[in-house]
Amino acid sequence: MAAPDIHPRYRTISASKLIEAAGLSLKAIKDADGLTYADLGQELGKSGDMAEAYRHGSSEMSMTTFLRACLRWNGRFANSVFAMLGLKLVPLDAEHHCDRKAMTIVMRAQVAMAENLEDGLLEDDELVEDRDWIEAAGAVFDGWRQRLARIDGRSE
After folding, report:
1. What are the respective helix, strand and coil percentages of the chain, to the nearest 5?
2. Angle CA 135–137–141, to nearest 5
3. Residues contacting residue 134 through CB under 8 Å, at least 6 positions apart
4. What is d(CA 129, CA 127) in angstroms, rounded to the nearest whole number?
5. From first to last of its 156 residues, what are the pLDDT tens digits of the chain?
6. CB 48 within 8 A of CB 38
7. First CA to last CA across the chain, in angstroms?
């Protein structure tokens, strides 16, 4: 994959791409959790028809609806959108593992990715295959960042 010509932090991202990413997140949540559009709408404080419109990108979410989705599904919903902006949503009360378990999770993520990298290239489908380990390791690092913030006196 060639490097982009413009640094990601300085490029323009179209609203349609952001709306599409949010819709794909809703689809993934709907499919993974076995929800109907009515179920999605209930979680968003909207009708099932509106949830379907958000899913297909034919309607833009209000700020309140977006924040409800962030609150309900956290990074499952928002991180694909935020990643396009160079950001990430992390809960402040992330799960904390004992240090031994945390390191095991990180090492398992590394092994899973190393196995897929043996041919010298990590393909998109291999990255998707490793998603659960990547997310678990990311949660461990988020917990360590929170711990460092407490140590530094930046957080209660």
Report:
1. 65, 0, 35
2. 115
3. 109, 113, 127
4. 5
5. 445 555 555 568 899 999 999 999 999 999 999 999 999 999 999 999 999 999 999 999 999 999 999 999 988 899 889 888 888 877 766 566 788 888 999 999 999 999 988 888 889 999 888 988 988 888 888 888 778 877 887 654
6. yes
7. 43
